[in-house]
Amino acid sequence: xxxxxxxxxxxxxxxxxxxxxxxxxxxxxxxxxxxxxxxxxxxxxxxxxxx
Length: 51
Hints:
Layout: H1 2-7, H2 12-28, H3 36-49
């Protein structure tokens, strides 16, 4: 996650929001741990809203 944040030049606030969305995605699937695919999906949603 840190590498993605540095590569995409995301602030800590943006990283926190992405984690919150990823947590929600995992919760919707009733999965206890956030998986890489949840983070990837959250990043995609961010890309969609920042255009």
